[in-house]
Amino acid sequence: MTGIKTTGEKKLMFFSGRAHPELAEEVAHELGVGVVPTKAFDFANGEIYVRYQESARGADCFLIQSHTAPINKWVMEQLIMIDALKRASARSITVILPFYGYARQDKKHRGREPISARLIADLMKTAGADRIVTVDLHTDQIVGFFDGPVDHLFALPILADYVGAKVDRDKLTVVSPDAGRVRVADRWCDRLGAPLAIVHKRRDKDVANQVTVHEVVGNVEGRVCVLVDDMIDTGGTICAAADALFAHGAEDVIVTATHGVLSGPAADRLKNSKVSEFVFTNTLPTPNELELDKITVLSIAPTIANAVREIFQDGSVTSLFEEQAGPKV
Q1: Residues involved in catalysis
Q2: What is the dihedral of CA 151, 238, 104, 113, to 10 degrees?
Q3: pLDDT tens-digit profile of 222-239?
Q4: Is the full-model pTM beyond 0.85?
Q5: Cα–Cα dist 172/163, whole Å
């Protein structure tokens, strides 16, 4: 006989960068494992150093890092951590991106622009990532940017079930803040059995975050409107959409989004908005200045942990999507 046989068992190891350790601890708790101790610090000139305190040889490694501010620092730290795992002889490296940085730059709108979302995927692959797990990408096409398996998870069941449990379904209308989110809003309608409305808007292509709301398509008068989006950054788009709904006679407006980026003037806009509640998941940490009574943060950790468990056990991540997709009446 040639060769050597081994009877060793598979080993799962869970790693985290420094961007959002609270979420990492939640996911680890759901999995029943600990986060691998890691020594990480910045040199005086900003360079990042990483060393794992345990051997990763032959292990199936899962590395979580959410691309919060300062986003470029945490992207770079994640690439360094992937490289460290590759050089530590990890059996496989699965990169978990609860929030995928640069996802809004997924295509060229004009000449001489980059496709930065593709660049992020290329960087992850080059560093040594075998697989990506992410939540609610800005557009589905980003899945095809990575040359390998991508598990695209959805926060819709968590957010929709929360809203459906506290709002009178007979008065509920699901609202897409723009034409690009209609497909997602339609899934909300299927799950909650609610009608759909759309806010028509136009962006100024030369001014970032500058939005003009034009009109509302659909009946919102006297209705409780749920605005659904993938992310809220400065809050300008969503607050303008909410104002348009109130101007068209909406009784109340609730805003839901998977990713609460909440940068720049977002704090003041959310505080001063007539919206009764903003609902996010914890894919990103919520800034301290936004600890408001009308902000609710739901945990995405169980969803991520279930995906990790299926991947490690060679199960079906798709089955998680199918179980979550059906309507909840």
Answers
A1: 201
A2: 170
A3: 999 999 999 999 998 899
A4: yes
A5: 10
